[in-house]
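Problem: given the chain below (394 residues), write out its structure.
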Amino acid sequence: MAGTSSQANGLNWPALPMDLHPLLESALPKLLSHSREYALIVLDAAGRIVQWLGASQQLMGFSAEEMIGRHAGEIFISPDREKGFDELEMAIARESGRCEDDRWHVRKDGARIWVSGSMEAVREESGAVVGYVKVMRDRTDLRIHVDRLESRLLDCEAAAQRTRAFLRTLGHEMRNPLAPLRNASTIIQRTNDDPRADKAVEIILGQIEVLTRLADDLMEVSRLDARKVRLDLQRHDLRVLLRETHDAFRQSAHEKGLNLILMVPKGPLWVDVDRPKFHQAASNLVSNAIKYTPRGGKVWIKATQEGRDVLMRVEDTGLGISAELLPRLFELFSRGAAAEEAAPGGMGIGLSVVRELIDLHGGSVEARSSGAGKGSEFTVRLPGVDTQGQHIDG
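Solution.
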């Protein structure tokens, strides 16, 4: 490959191997050769630098005189050279014609820069590789931004782990005094004939139940988030499960002056679910609907099927959900101002538990509302099962 001087695209080039001239004439437009952002390096077949163009000196700190004739691997950091990444880059370009490679490189002053690079192999008519063209761009700013985001993500994950541990501990600590309180309340109720004491004990027992459910939710959400919950899946007719849920909440709805309505089809809707876990999810939805629906309103528990999915819907004429809250409704501790006003002291845990439980069943849950004061609808989708026990395809 004898060298000679040449002129390509109006530029004066020093002596180069003759078989690299077509590359220069077709792939090195004037714009790129004068670029302040893109560095362009031309290599021979052995990986030695024969041209150092564009922003190469600004990017790497070396002048063309310093770099021409040196192997391109010298701009790689030592660990990458030891692993052979410089040779691998050329091997991939030879095999597939092109190699995209983002990695750390080292400048003349010893500083590391994150470079987004692309190398292409140049071939003569016979197919033999006669050289390579490598285009590089400094993306250190982007890499630093990504590293910061990754660091923040790790911090968030660590914080989430601490939160789970706190919730689990809090749930245990809350449960410990509840049993003695319940026992003491029962003793007072049995040994005291004063009607006022009976009423007070009734209130205490009611609040103990509230605290018990809260403690259970705290422990459950930490287990669910850590994926430590195992399901005992059995085949059930969704209609039967919803009748049980309806019966469990009929009295509380009546006491609040609400009409709790169950609407199911005539035929069975088979699903594979963990019965206690499903009841926990369904109960959270129905209890929320009752809690946030004003006296005189209605709450519907519905069952239907759409294609392969078996659906449970809980709809109410209650407070509704604001557009701002709707996208984060199922996040832990997410609560709207209207919900806090209607039921002070809640922690916004129940819907997060619902989402995790339904997700474990291979289903999904979504919420809809036309806005504050316009009621809400929660839809649980579960994979349906046909009469032969096969999942419905659609």
